[in-house]
């Protein structure tokens, strides 16, 4: 039997070769869900169909076009929260009366942050400017911008663009609206572009399966959460960084991951993924270049604020350490069902939940060790997308906070990890539907909202769906013949220098030891290739 750890020899440099249309995979021929969805328009792609001859509509452009439609629908879903009314004094006000953000399910952090982060004050600058807040302790009265540097500057720049727009509108050259509404629309425009970059980069990375990017474009999570917060910036940097790594540009990949980490910290997790895979393949020098440029990019963005506004820059980390468990976390589920308050206890304002933080760290490190063990012991080296999805999913599942927009992080990684449309769409629909009980839970029982138990039940269902995807990914790692990406003839489209590289370091797993004993009749270990 051939060794599964050694892929068959094909094109010596497949990562940069342009594929012919005939080499692309049509999901309508492979996936039952896609095949059923194509029946109203003629059915699955025919065996003798002419592919790749249209002068404009490539799979990439179709995906981007569908993404634009999804983003427009997302904007309409949030637009109810930027409506205005005229109060008794004749002034225009934002219409958030009677729990409108929750009843209309249009809530977006972008709207309240415009005033709460003092972006409506032209004199403020992120991390340098501070303000006072009512609190039980003097330590918490001084507040600063609470987001990482790239995200904080992104908000500030949009606030300046809003001021410029309103100045021109006052002269009659542009339509006018409430400042917060203009700010939301400007922010939504840039976030939409960021998500289009995510779709584009994912489609370029999948190579033989360009239609899989449609899943990123039309995901129900896009319809709900693209404009809930600013996470599309980090997904764009991460997806583009993976593409650069796939194109064997580790320095560019490092810069993009560093910028992504300066917007949200989760892109740093991919460095750990690449380290384990490069260790196994003997490509640590390439990983070192990517890691170096990641650190340099992060430092270039952060060091000026560390030196000039140290306390303001540290606000993000301080608040994350102080933050208790959110209703979205499994820790809240455990506390609610068991009545045990040991995770947080009774915390005073400004007190760190030490037990909770320790449990979160230990569980996540344990998951990373397990994923590293899988990466180094599987008969065939896992793909980058597979391990990236597992690590980010483990981070979310073990974290004390799973804000709804965090699910966007998983969308492009899930498509790279397991391009099976039925389970992916099933998870995306379930995850997006959690938004409904979430909004009515925040509305409050006194205002005809949902009790906590109903919302937590949907959180459990969402988490079980993510765990189910992780199980499918692990199954395909240990059974590469069930991996649709490798069945198509690729080894690792996102692997870059890892694609079709021979293993240099491989640990013998428990299964390998059992197989060796069964063959030799004596203790032994499976050799690495």
From TrEMBL:
Primary location class: membrane
Organism: Amycolatopsis ultiminotia
Bilayer topology annotation: Multi-pass membrane protein
Subcellular localization, as worded in the UniProt entry: Cell membrane
InterPro entries hit by this protein: GT87, UCP010361
Mitochondrion found in the keyword field: no
Designated name of the protein: Glycosyltransferase 87 family protein
Spans traversing the lipid bilayer: 62-85, 180-201, 213-246, 252-278, 290-309, 354-378, 424-442, 454-474
Family: Belongs to the glycosyltransferase 87 family.
UniProt keyword list: Cell membrane, Membrane, Transferase, Transmembrane, Transmembrane helix
């Amino acid at each position: 039997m051939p060794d599964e750890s050694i892929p068959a020899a094909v094109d010596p440099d497949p990562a940069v070769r342009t594929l012919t249309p005939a080499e692309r995979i049509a999901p309508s021929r492979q996936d039952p869900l896609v095949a059923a969805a194509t029946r109203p328009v003629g059915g699955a792609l025919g065996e003798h169909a002419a592919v790749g001859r249209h002068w404009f509509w490539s799979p990439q452009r179709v995906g981007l076009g569908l993404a634009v439609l999804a983003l427009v629908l997302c904007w309409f879903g949030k637009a109810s929260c930027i409506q205005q009314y005229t109060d008794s004094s004749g002034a225009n006000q934002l219409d958030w009366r009677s729990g409108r953000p929750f009843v209309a399910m249009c809530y977006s952090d972008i709207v309240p942050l415009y005033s709460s982060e003092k972006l409506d004050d032209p004199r403020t600058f992120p991390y340098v400017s501070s303000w006072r807040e009512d609190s039980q302790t003097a330590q918490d009265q001084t507040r600063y911008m609470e987001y990482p540097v790239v995200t904080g500057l992104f908000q500030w720049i949009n606030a300046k663009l809003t001021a410029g727009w309103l100045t021109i509108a006052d002269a009659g050259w542009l339509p006018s609206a409430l400042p917060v509404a203009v700010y939301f629309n400007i922010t939504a425009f840039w976030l939409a572009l960021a998500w289009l970059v995510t779709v584009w980069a994912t489609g370029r990375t999948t190579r033989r399966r360009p239609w899989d990017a449609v899943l990123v474009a039309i995901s129900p999570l896009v319809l709900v959460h693209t404009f809930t917060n600013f996470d599309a910036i980090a997904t764009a940097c991460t997806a583009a960084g993976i593409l650069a790594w796939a194109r064997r540009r580790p320095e560019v990949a490092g810069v993009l991951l560093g910028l992504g980490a300066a917007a949200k910290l989760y892109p740093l997790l991919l460095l750990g993924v690449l380290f384990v895979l490069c260790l196994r393949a003997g490509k640590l020098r390439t990983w070192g270049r990517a890691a170096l440029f990641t650190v340099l990019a992060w430092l270039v963005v952060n060091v000026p604020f560390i030196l000039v506004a140290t306390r303001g820059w540290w606000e993000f980390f301080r608040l994350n350490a102080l933050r208790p468990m959110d209703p979205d976390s499994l820790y809240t589920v455990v506390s609610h069902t068991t009545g045990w308050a040991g995770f947080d206890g009774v915390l005073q304002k400004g007190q760190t939940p030490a037990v909770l933080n320790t449990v979160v760290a230990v569980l996540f490190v344990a998951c990373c060790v397990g994923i590293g063990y899988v990466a180094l012991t599987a008969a065939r080296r896992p793909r980058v997308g597979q391990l990236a999805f597992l690590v980010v999913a483990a981070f979310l599942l073990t974290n004390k906070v799973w804000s709804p927009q965090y699910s966007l992080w998983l969308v492009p990684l899930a498509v790279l990890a397991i391009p099976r449309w039925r389970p992916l769409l099933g998870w995306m629909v379930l995850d997006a539907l959690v938004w409904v009980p979430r909004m009515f839970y925040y509305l409050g029982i006194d205002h005809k909202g949902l009790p906590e138990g109903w919302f937590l039940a949907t959180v459990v269902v969402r988490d079980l769906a993510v765990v189910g995807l992780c199980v499918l990914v692990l199954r395909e790692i240990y059974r590469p013949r069930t991996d649709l990406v490798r069945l198509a003839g690729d080894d690792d489209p996102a692997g870059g220098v890892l694609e079709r590289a021979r293993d240099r370091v491989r640990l013998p797993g428990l299964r390998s030891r059992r197989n060796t004993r069964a063959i030799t009749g004596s203790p032994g270990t499976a050799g690495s290739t």
